Amino acid sequence: MASIRLAAAAAVILLGTAAVGCDAAGVRLPPGGGHAPAAPSDPDGARPAPGPARTPGGEEGPRTSPGTDPEERPSASDPATGEAQEPEEAPEEAVAAYMEALASGDPARMAAGLAYAAEGSTAHDYLAHQVSVARAGADGGSPAAAFEVERTAHGWKLCRGSDPGGAPGCSGYRGFTAQDGLVGGLRVNGGDPGPGLLVPAPGTRPRAESAGVSATLLTAYRSTTAKALVVTVGFETRENADLDLGQAVYRSGSGHESRVDAVAGRRELDAGTLARAAFHLPGASSGGVLRVGGCLEECSSLVELAVPVR
Questions:
Q1: What ranges does the record list as Low complexity composition bias (predicted)?
Q2: CATH classification of 207-308, choosing from 1.20.1050.10, 1.10.1410.40, 2.60.40.1240, 2.130.10.10?
Q3: Phi/psi at 106 (nearest 5 deg)?
Q4: Which of 120, 118, 114, 123 is nearest to 176 (CA)?
């Protein structure tokens, strides 16, 4: 089956890690951190102009240079005294294993890194989202490249090489806090990714179905820096189907509609197969509906999927 290729632009939409300059570990996308949307007559999508470097999950890195990092670890308050308390630092070994997994770009290795993050924590959800984005790229025939990972005086830095004429993309990670003896919290490019993450538990994931094709919301993440929403969806079909991934439209809770500007994933699905896709939506936030169209083989039936992102 044909697959949508990831655009070879400086923009990157990988898992949702962040180092100085982007959000590490992910799939390359066009400006805005995604795959160039494919027109109906062009299944491989248009090649976008180079844009700012992005890392996993489509997060654009901070505007600071690799040598500057004003971020400090967040503090908590003692419920008895009201005085600020320094949160417990995550075990160094767990942080190192977590970051190595995030930087690998390999879905299986990244998923193994979830063992070092506390279940239900921000760190766990962040890596789970990045894994889902990486799997979408692999399903589309464009696996993510590994990032260079470096321990710094203030935390960790993930960088990937630049495209011709572009600047290298890096993201900074720090402020790792402990939860249940594992990594629980973190800061990506100076921000807390927690409020922007949506990772429904199995059994509670929103789902849509049309003409024997089903779509299930897997994850969503609004970057702390790029202000874009990256949504990953799992597709399953009972018959051969062709999905117009690059023509997907997102309708926000307020009624505003925006078209996806980058996508990673497989467009043509064989009967009985499972596949993922990652959609990059600039300026969007969770709470809306992602609409994906297509048709069964020879367009015997139209597919109209409306996936709640909430």
A1: 36-56
A2: 2.60.40.1240
A3: -95, 120
A4: 123
**Residues 30-69 pLDDT 10s:** 322 333 333 222 222 322 323 333 444 555 443 333 333 4
Residue 132, H or E segment:
helix 122-139
Find how far residue 91's CA is from the centre of its chain.
Answer: 25
Kindly tell me the sign of the dihedral angle through the C-alpha atoms of 219, 220, 221, 226: positive
* 8-state DSSP, 256: -
Distance CA 187, CA 250 (A): 28
User: What b/e string do you get for 161-185 counting C-beta neighbours within 10 Å, with b at 16 or more?
Assistant: eebeeeebbbbbbbbbbbbeebbbb
Model-wide pTM > 0.85:
no
Cα 287 to Cα 110: distance, rounded to the nearest angstrom: 27
* Residue 147: CB atoms within 10 Å: 30
